[in-house]
Specification:
The protein is mainly β. The protein contains 3 helices and 27 strands.
Length: about 375
């Protein structure tokens, strides 16, 4: 039932892959994921695993059998995201290190939209959050406001899409939360910490309370993800009852000493519209005279049944643009995962309290 994932190893030079990509640099492919190398191999213990050919400050398009660099204007990109149709990449630019700009504020931020060859199409000044609509190439951008600290807030939403039409823009109650979509016409505005999620209608321009708890909504529209207040695990909500399944789902991965939960996302495998992918990591172990170590597992969960469908070692990078696969990083490998690529449960015993985790040889695919 389960097989080896399509694996990008980077053991050899990327020159062949990068040169081959130049001839098709503007081609549309929604089966990959765009990310900064520095955000994939982000932990101090993982930097030694990062392929030498990849620059930490550059953005790459990872696909099932290759990778190519997307040349962007700024090396300070954050929140890089490929549009669901695979034609565009949006990223934020943070110039807080520029002394010419004075005190921190919206003027130091912008959201840029480019095609996958790196050609810029739009720049939205003051953008501090971004989220693609689940369909096509429509982008919501939250525009920052004061007071700036401790987390950049926003008080308006701009919706951009290619073409001559004037962007949709509305002022909203200020928030420091996240944004997302509930269908093609509704932008979700998350609470700063506590409080309801609001919904902005593109058709009417009205803001009202949403029945969704979080801003990352499942494809069937019944569940959502949002950071939980004052605890390690994410909130995974049944929006009909407002029940939080986060702790129960984290428990399926069998980590005894929980250190970090997330990221998490939705994936559409085999018509399943309530399937969650989530990473759970143990706390760090620092034995005397040895490098720091911890276990990270990523699970595939049916939220409706609270059932573990599969698992893998490593951390979730995110969903592909079409949300039909996910990317997981483990050591120097990036795995683009189909449903058949997951390891069947049960998970292995957590041995982090006794010794650093070493994968069994049969779990390593070269």
């Amino acid at each position: 039932m389960f097989r080896a994932a399509a694996r990008i190893t980077f053991l050899l030079s990327l020159s062949t892959a990068l040169c081959a990509a130049r001839s098709t640099s503007s081609a549309t492919d929604n089966t990959g994921i765009a990310a900064r190398a520095g955000s994939i191999w982000r932990e101090h213990t993982e930097k030694q695993d990062k392929p030498r050919d990849l620059r930490s400050d550059s953005v790459y398009l990872f696909q099932r059998f290759g990778v190519r660099r997307i040349p962007l204007r700024s090396n300070m990109a954050w929140a890089v995201s490929l549009s669901p149709d695979g034609s565009l990449v949006a990223y934020g630019v943070n110039r807080t290190g520029d002394p010419r700009l004075g005190l921190p504020g919206p003027d130091r931020y912008e959201v840029v939209v480019a095609d996958t060859s790196g050609q810029e199409l739009a720049s939205i000044r003051g953008g501090v959050r971004l989220a693609w609509s689940p369909r096509g190439n429509v982008l919501a951008v939250a525009i920052g406001c004061d007071p700036w600290l401790p987390i950049p807030p926003f008080d308006s939403i701009l919706v951009w899409q290619p073409g001559p039409e004037k962007p949709f823009s509305r002022h909203i109650p200020a928030s420091r939360g996240k944004i997302g979509w509930a269908g093609p016409d509704t932008i979700l505005i998350g609470a700063s910490v506590l409080g309801p999620t609001n919904a902005l209608s593109r058709r009417t321009g009205r803001v009202s309370s949403s029945w969704h708890v979080g801003t990352d909504v499942s494809p069937n529209g019944l569940y959502s993800i949002y950071p939980a207040y004052n605890r390690v695990s994410l909130g995974i909500y049944d929006d009909r009852t407002r029940s939080d399944y986060g702790d129960s789902i984290v428990g399926l991965l069998g980590i005894r000493k929980l250190g970090e939960t997330g990221p998490a996302c939705w994936v559409q495998y085999q018509g399943r519209r309530q399937t969650l992918v989530i990473t759970v990591c143990s706390s760090w172990r620092e034995p005397e005279g040895q490098p720091s170590s911890r276990i990270c597992r990523t699970g595939l969960v049916d939220v409706e049944d609270l059932r573990l469908l599969g698992w893998r070692h490593g951390r979730l990078v995110g969903p592909t643009a079409d949300s039909r696969r996910v990317a997981i990083v483990h050591g120097e490998y990036v795995d683009i995962m189909d449903y058949e690529d997951w390891t069947a449960p049960p998970v292995e015993a957590d041995t982090i309290s006794d010794k650093p985790f070493v994968p069994r040889p049969e779990l390593i695919t070269h």
